[in-house]
Please model this.
Amino acid sequence: MNEYPLPTPHPTNAHPARVYNAWLGGKDHYPVDQEAAELAAGANPTIVPSVRANRAFLGRAVRHLAAAGVRQFLDVGTGIPAAANTHEVAQQAAPESRVVYVDNDPIVLTHARALLVSGTEGRTDYVQADARDVDTILDAASRTLDLDRPVGLMLVAILQYIKDAEDPWDITRRLLDRLASGSYLVLSHPAADVTAPEVAESMRIYNERAASHASATPRTQKEVERFFEGLEILEPGVVTLTRWRPGPSDTPDDTLPMWCAVARKA
Model:
């Protein structure tokens, strides 16, 4: 059983997946989420472009992994479906790709059908679980994924919701420990050391409106690098979102306060 509290059907607290949806201009959120999204973005105007750049990073990373031969993806903290979901990007590159999504918000569950639309050659699945529930996630994912073969572990803008005291670094390590050699970690995380005052204020505003288990903690570049200990970090390393292998039409913007990287498990 999941020991972590899940959002109620009529929430009084903001939830990450729904606030993220509001920043993307979606409609699948409640007034409490809209309020948190607007106030946080008012304190930090880079939030909305960061959310969009984060989505673009996910797409570039998935395409890179598909080109490297990865055909399985475990997307933890997937959020409410939007354009270019992991399975859409992966199966466009390799139709036989299998993707398992994980989230703890019941609203995401109601949209799971959109995440489960797979090409005939591939497969998708959805697991309702908290990111802290490593064994639950991996046991359920193993119904769809072969964990003895490489998996792309997607921890995209999710680990900030796990407090230092809950050791997100250990959670990441335990997820990776059960994955095969040749697996990859794709990770992005809000930065505490880029436009720091604005980030701190926007996080304060969000955290006042979020449930305690969903409060957010930005981290420094060095703290984010810790998630990749023991892995082979691909070039260009831990960088801001638009610096990770940008396409010809991508414009670098180092004011977007999120770190990201992709690394391979030997």
The first strand starts at residue 72 and ends at 76. The longest helix spans residues 47-67.
